């Protein structure tokens, strides 16, 4: 609640404050140019920042994960090494590289998961030491004048694939608190293109907080670059800090006590994020050829707010099996609340011998459409000698924590109706209970009074 | 009879207009294409409108659209979208001008 008041008061002064303040060190940068983190740490400013950054999820693309079943407790997990069917690979098998030429056009391109890493690819996800420290792209998150023509993969003189950075004084002289755009450099296109993974457009029209001028770090505020996250069943890596709606709004944010009472069993998101978006299904076994000759995984796209969520009990622990990744929990478990999820189905190759999901190097199928060549390349990288690939489906539940609305929030009649938003039966209610829960008797007097008030 | 004549006249005009404005879709509908950007014109950092020319992958035709949405304009300004990028475009013809309604990089996984 205290946080809420702070953010609120900051919002009032935002704009003016941000523009009026000039970043110290201007003269130093004008004189010496910008040499990366060393410049940020010069003259006693921000000492040790780059070194500390190397231990965060944004650098490692991995962390210990405590709430997901069937994992090796001694290992770290994240985009670096996970395999699922939203993107059927990881930083290792799908390392940033130049793909083979397309047979039709003779053209090639650079692709790889670790393109979304704030290093230079020579110092890659999880690297350590002085070179790694020097490679951190501080400005991609902190500059408002970044020139993205410079943040492109290219081949250096030694033939290595390098991720470029904007280290011009112009970019360095425009540093400040990260804006929405800085975060969206990577987050907008996660999952294979703009808004594919979550349909998460953070704009006025789609989120009350964006409408109030809030930015990502107003909620995801970080100390030592440990950025708080939530408990999305499909974003495992975390910096050990969490953010929740109730951090700011408390558990009783409504004047209406009937609504407040629901918070014990129903997550805020369930009522306040009634729609989701992004891809609902992909097929990694058959790719689609684009007009440019290159192939892409066949994808059913949806815009922000175009998809109806599914609702399930969730106690913040995750069921993790080859054909299913999603929430654990039940009505009987008091730690569980009803949450909204985007249901996603991905088709990919599974190993008939082990039953496990196989991963894919995208370079071969992107050039020629040969998906089994992609599986073979990934298996080679991972040292898997024998496998028997068979197509199969995996169901994935994605958490839904943005696209917050007040006007369209679910109200009494949206749920307490026979054909309402919730499937009470699958949520574990008995027929007798359902008869009560789907009756207008629950809210009739209240709605009638409200109706009278509004007219 | 008079009503009929007016109606049929309007019909002829409508067909002509639709045919003229858009070879692929009725005039009321959005026109969709995938193409590569050949040119972006934007007045400067404070510009609230830009024009982009795309080469339609299917037909090879050049199509110029006006872009006014903030997010896309910002991507032109900081060069997150540049010439050579392949774009999935949806536009409508408003007052005789091609107006972008959806302008996204196609980039894949």
What can you tell me about this protein's structure?
- The complex is a heterodimer of chains A (455) and B (109).
- With 455 residues, chain A is of the alpha+beta class.
- In chain A, 27% of the residues lie in helices and 14% in strands.
- Chain B is of the alpha+beta class.
- Chain B has a single domain (28-105), classed as Nucleic acid-binding proteins (OB fold (Dihydrolipoamide Acetyltransferase, E2P), Beta Barrel).
- In chain B, 26% of the residues lie in helices and 39% in strands.
- Chain B is built from 2 helices and 5 strands.
- Chain B has helices at 2-21, 70-77; strands at residues 31-42, 50-56, 62-67, 86-94, 97-105.
- In chain B, strands 3-2-1-4-5 form a 5-stranded antiparallel sheet.
Topology:
The complex is a heterodimer of chains A (455) and B (109).
Chain A: H1 2-13, H2 16-20, H3 26-32, H4 37-40, H5 49-53, H6 57-60, E1 97-98, E2 110-111, H7 130-135, H8 138-142, E3 153-155, E4 161-163, H9 169-172, H10 180-187, H11 208-211, H12 216-219, H13 245-249, H14 257-262, H15 268-272, E5 281-289, E6 295-300, E7 310-314, E8 318-321, E9 324-327, E10 337-351, H16 363-368, H17 371-382, E11 389-399, H18 412-415, H19 431-437, H20 444-454
Parallel strand pairs in A: 5-10, 9-11
Antiparallel strand pairs in A: 1-2, 3-4, 5-6, 7-10, 8-9, 10-11
Chain B: H1 2-21, E1 31-42, E2 50-56, E3 62-67, H2 70-77, E4 86-94, E5 97-105
